[in-house]
Amino acid sequence: MTYLRLLWILIIRNVRQEKFLTMLSIIGIALGIGLFTGVKVASDRAISSFESDIRGMNPHASHEVSDESGNDFDEHIYQDVRRYDPNCLPVIKTFGYLPELKEAIDLNGVYTLKTAQFLRLANASQGLKGGFPHGDIDWETYYRTINGVLVSARFSERYSLKKGDTMRAFLYDKDSVLKVVGILDNSFLPANTVIMDIGNFQEYLGKTGHLSRIDLATDEQTIDDLRMRLPPHLGVEAKDDLFRDRASLVMSFRHNLQFVSLIAILVGIFLLYSTVFISVAKRRTEIGILRGLGADRKTVVLLFASQGFVFGMIGSVLGLLIGQLAAYFSVIAVEKTISTLYSSVTISDYLLTKRDIFVALILGVFVSLAASIVPSYEASKIRPHETSREGSFEGRYRRYQTPVALAGIFLLILGLASAYVDYRDPPFPFPLLAYAGILFLIGGFTLVSPYYLTVMLKILRSPTEYFSRSIGTLTIGDMKGNTQRFSLALMSVAISSSLIISLLIVIFSLRGSLEAWINRNITADIYIKPASCKANYCFYPLSGEIIGMVEGFPDVVAVDRFRGLHLDVFGKKVIAGFADVGVKRQFLHRMYYDRHYEKILQEMEGDEPVAGISEFLSLRYGLKIDDRIELDSPSGRVAFRINDVSSSYSTTSGYIYIHRKWLKTYWGLDDATQVSVYVRDAADIDRVIAELKGRLLPFYSLEIMNNRELRDRIMDIFNKSFAITYAIEFISIMVSLIGVVTTLLSLVIERKREISILRYLGTNWGQIRQNLVLSATITGLAGIILGVLLGFLMSLILIHVVNRISFGWEIHFSIPFVLLTGVLVVVLLTTVIAGFLPGKMLKRIDPRKFISFE
């Protein structure tokens, strides 16, 4: 008999008969793969967006000249740079926001003729017309229209834009209008890239004489010579270094989401294991006969592994469809989070690439084969005389239960030890050992689960028999005889529960810590920043007239002028905030009072250069209080003594807090990117805001918020940032439910003869169904108890190890007891409901068939 014929008889026929079970297994795989793919696509597109932004208009540029603090600089330096690289490209750029389209754009002012040359090199095979790729562009109109812009074909199609259309845009602190004068059909550019002639940009937006960067494509020797000639505040950096620095901001966010997604896939492994095991149980007689006819073990293993492979392929393909949908929503969440915590980013592409599809298929097949290999091996060990015996698998495992449990305890110890090493002295820049520790814990609990279930059955025997009488005795006996099978369903519930518990504890703890941070730092009455800035920190200065107008209001008693800069610390860009510490200390008592914090602020007002740093910098570079941190400035390198180390939930790239008097002393700046306004005690804040808006908004594009609005916005961003984790929790509950259903189905299938005998002895279908529901309830209860312990350990590792290494945030551990109780009750109810689902298969059992067989 050929292999394909055997595959049809033993596997395909079974799949056709058990459509519901097959569908459950495929959905379980698809959900896990879809979630992983969606998260991967979103984070990959964010990184690609960073790379496109850094590469700029010239794909061949290897370096760029820029101000080391992130400011625009005098364009006269361009003439000096041209002596070293005649083909260098000057660029001035800003991020803008289109309120009517609710879309961010990356506006680039470029030297149009040179940019056309570079794009020609990048698209030689497409055929260029008029210097740019095919596009309907009237070049005379483009140059003559001071607010004329070129938009990408993808952007114009998405918003139905055509030549002559205008777009309202918030740029810097002004409300501007951009006119579309041409469409660029160029896939090289990100969809949200908008191009403007550099002269028009400078004149229209009031940036005459300024550049943001100069792109270079030359050799290292020329770069070294150029570095020697540049002013102190300008530097030459490699594009690759800039990209790695920017991408590193996203990697921690990406690693955490993908790790949680992988745990959801791990739950699917238990599900598929049960499904293939059901096929083995149903075909035990045929397998025994096949072995009696001379089939070797390799053939049997290959047959059932093929079933796992087919399920994996189908589930992965369906997972790609789910992943595409998940990618759309993940891109929205990831873009919002990254733009707020890290740096402005526009992600316009959420479509799966060939690489994404390949990775998803490989992962799905690997998971499916890993899940099916054990039951396939068990099928190969069936001997001919076992064709008339049911439940023989459990007998083999029972004798190994104790040594397997000891191996599980060893993995638990190894997992805790791995996490502790990362806690004390992490050897890697990301929490690799902590992730490994969590996986070791899951593996350890999995190996311990059969022994744990045996203990739980002994504990639950008396109450179960008391409430359910003979059915309770029968249920406990069935589960005790099938501990290996039920332990798999138990672990499916335990892993799902632990994932939900750990994430809820992390979210609840972070929320509490964030609220405490808000109380300490959000103390002003009114906050003003450019409407174009959607991140926590802005880097383009407000017009000086704005601050003068605000200070002139009769109810305003003080204004804290805040200036954000990007500074280099140990080769990495971090955010530095320069604020009027005296103003903050003067009004600190209004909403928050901490004598220690007030002492820190008072120390910053002294004559010694001191600075506070975020815990991220302390952990990453071993900095502590009274150490000195050296910062480059136009006046040379300055050493600041560290007088405070605290968490900064507003960014994860590192943060330095300095008195703004040093901004003028060393950086020669006295402007502000955001302002915090304090009003007199008796003033009506809403009235003051209305007056400020009436005076400022006709001339400037600003966001003016009161203290409560800013607090609510921060919490709203927090909630949206965890939208993906809520999806993971939902999927975990679904997969857990499917896992319990498949386990009960496998029990029904393998114990058809025992059920038939019970029917002949007078047991009705309702009592047998009660047996299944009781089995599901005990499985769910035992799984939740184990999940609570695993989830508690996972949350400790996530908060005190993974979080500290990845984000540098100090989170105060707290448990939402009421919320957790409610969620766990929902999980338990889902497992109880799962006990009713195999009822349809139960009634298909014909007792006469099995009794006659005996």
List keywords for this structure.
6-stranded mixed beta barrel, 22 strands, single chain, 29 helices, about 850 residues
Could you characterize the architecture of this molecule?
The two termini are 29 Å apart. This protein is elongated. The chain is of the alpha+beta class. Residues 120-135 and 388-392 have low confidence and may be disordered. Helix 2 runs antiparallel to helix 24 (723-750) and helix 9 (239-282) runs antiparallel to helix 11. The chain has 29 helices and 22 strands. The strands form four sheets. A nine-stranded mixed beta sheet has the order 18-19-17-20-16-15-21-14-22. A six-stranded mixed β-barrel has the order 3-4-10-7-9-8. The relative contact order is 0.11.
Strand content: 15-25%
Strand count, sense and closure of the main sheet?
A: 9 strands, mixed
For the largest sheet, list the strands in their spatial order: 18-19-17-20-16-15-21-14-22
Dominant shape: elongated
Counting DSSP H or I runs of 4 or more residues, the number of helices is 29
SSE class: alpha+beta
Rounded mean pLDDT score: 82
Give the low-confidence spans.
Answer: 120-135, 388-392
Percent in helix? 55-70%
In total, the number of strands is 22
Radius of gyration: 32 Å
Alpha carbon gap, first and last residue: 29 Å
